[in-house]
Amino acid sequence: MSTQSIPSDSIAINASRLNDHLAALGQIGITEAGMQRVAFSAPDVAGRDYVVGLMAAAGMAVRVDAAGNIIGRVEGGEASAPAIVLGSHTDTVPAGGQYDGALGVIAAIEVVQAVADAGQTLRHPVEVMVFTNEEGTSFHRWLLGSRAVAGLWESEDFAAVADDGATLTARLPDVGGNISRIAEARRRPDELACYLELHIEQGPLLHRGGFPIGVVTGITGRSMYHVDIVGEANHAGTTPMAMRRDAMSSAARLALAVRRIAGEMEVVRVGTVGSMEVHPNAGNVIPGRVQMGVEFRDERMESLAAAEVELRRTAEEIAHAENVAIAVTAQRNTPSVPIAGNMQQLIADAAQLAGLEHINLPSGAGHDAQAIAAITPAAMVFVPSVGGISHAPAEYTTPADCANGAQVLLNALLLADGR
Ligand code: HGY
Ligand code: MN
Ligand code: MN
């Protein structure tokens, strides 16, 4: 068994097989409203089963860890060498797209399959990791699986309860996990050589600029808040305006404030109110309570901190003016992560070997890579999102761009194996 490093321009991915597998996964959980492979749902489990089959066909030994992460592994020529890890996620946001996460998983499996088809054995073992609940739609605890691998779980993860009242303890077994053994999912830095992830950009820069490849320079920080506004439910027809304690008007003022903090005030890069629950949500009742989700993102952690100060100050101001109670609870603060220069260079070299032009760019989206970077050097490859659209049914990346990304991922693996 050769342990020589393999020339990094010597193996090609199978573009039609890659796109066929991606299309097949894209049918699992698809509805007229978009992709519904929300973590722990039946479509999520079906998608997991599909990729397990592809991993086994590619010659990987497949296991599921205590966090429900699916881990496929092929041994290398140097038994004691640390593993090179490729990965991403198959769970989606509700009404999401068919490429976010899925491309990185299918491409990672295709890379391993292509090396096997070429009859080659790398020096390093290769692991493909499919991480649980990257989106955090379930339990509002994102990067759940990758943070377990990195040893970054917090008390709130163990205590997590879904909106339907189910506990994470009860639901984790649905994806093969076991919360009481979560510590076993943690990997030591000496076990791993590096982590490489292919992902769609989910933004407009590559597609608008006509660049086939993006070398990610850093991954954004993200702060999330649960806001609970309590006013007084009352009759919509008989209650004079001056007597109202209207939770909905307060929520509307706070939502506009979030846009102002990121927009005209430029305190932080972006701010979003993505979810809102109105109680009792009846047209002829002044809402007595509104619960909303707020998030800010920025590479600069000090900007996230400044946005929180402004959010809390504004909430107090609105509570006083509208005579309501507003509770702002921080849910989770995810630090931004820079990608090391040598890891950026690895991806740039891999793109050059594929004869593909690239630009360097930061990621405005969060990724499992920002968790795994805590225990091993990480790098990301981006491919264009048509129109910059993502987290929506219109999310689209062309088959050629998907194949380009997978080839760059393969080249990066071969380069990393030789270094
Ligand atoms: O929300 C994000 O940034 C990622 O898509 N989970
Ligand atoms: Mn993603
Ligand atoms: Mn996503």
Summary of the model, kept short:
33% of the residues lie in helices and 23% in strands.
Runs in which pLDDT lies below 50 for 5 or more consecutive residues are none
**DSSP summary, beta strand count:** 17
Q: Beta-strand percentage? A: 15-25%
Specify the CATH homologous superfamily of the largest domain: Zn peptidases
Give me the CATH architecture of the largest domain, please.
3-Layer(aba) Sandwich
What is the end-to-end distance? Answer: 19 Å
Along the chain, the helix and strand elements come as HEEHEEEHEHHHEHEEEHEEEHEEHEHEH
Oligomer: single chain
Rough outline: elongated
Task: Outline the structure in words.
The protein is of the alpha+beta class and about 425 residues long. It has two domains: about 15-220 and about 335-419, Zn peptidases (Aminopeptidase, 3-Layer(aba) Sandwich), CATH 3.40.630.10; about 220-335, Alpha-Beta Plaits (2-Layer Sandwich), CATH 3.30.70. The chain is built from twelve helices and 17 strands. The protein has helices at about 15-25, 40-55, 100-115, 145-150, 155-160, 170, 205-210, 245-260, 300-320, 340-355, 370, 400-419, and strands spanning about 30, 35, 60-65, 70-75, 85-90, 125-130, 190-200, 215-220, 220-230, 235, 270-280, 285, 290-300, 325-335, 335-340, 360-365, 380-385. The strands form four sheets. Strands 3, 4, 5, 6, 7, 8, 15, 16 and 17 form a nine-stranded mixed sheet that branches. A hairpin with a 2-residue loop joins strand 1 and strand 2 (about 35). Helix 1 (about 15-25) packs across helix 12 and helix 3 crosses helix 12 (about 400-419). It is elongated and about 80 Å long. The protein starts with 14 loop residues before the first helix and ends with a helix. The structure holds (2S)-amino(hydroxy)ethanoic acid (HGY) and manganese (II) ion (2 copies). One manganese (II) ion (MN) binds near residues 93, 100, 135 and 391.
